[in-house]
Design a protein that fits this description.
This protein has about 110 residues and is mainly alpha-helical. Helix content is about 80%, strand content about 5%. Strands 1-2 form a two-stranded antiparallel sheet.
Length: about 110
Amino acid sequence: MKILDTIIEPMENITFSFRHYRLWWLTLLITIFFDYITTLSFVTKFGANAEANYIIRWLILNIGLYYGLLIGKLLQLLSVFVFISLHQRLGGIFLLLVVILNCWAIVMNSMPFA
């Protein structure tokens, strides 16, 4: 594939990422799971309108709690795959960023409202 006169090989980039950032991928999957569980608990307790992410809120309201949230997490995983397929070296940084965002979401979902 060629974007802006740069040849990009998506499968090679994804393979590189799986080989070199195996621990980050595992951490990402774990944080996605915990974010799913804590968001499920949070939305069950306070309702979908308390969800700050507009896309997740829309998916929950239109598809249902379990499937909407699952589709939202799968979209997050898809975005990681797409970004990593574009560049080898930035993949680790992007994985780290998404893991940090998921950890922040887990903490925010676990905090009770005052």
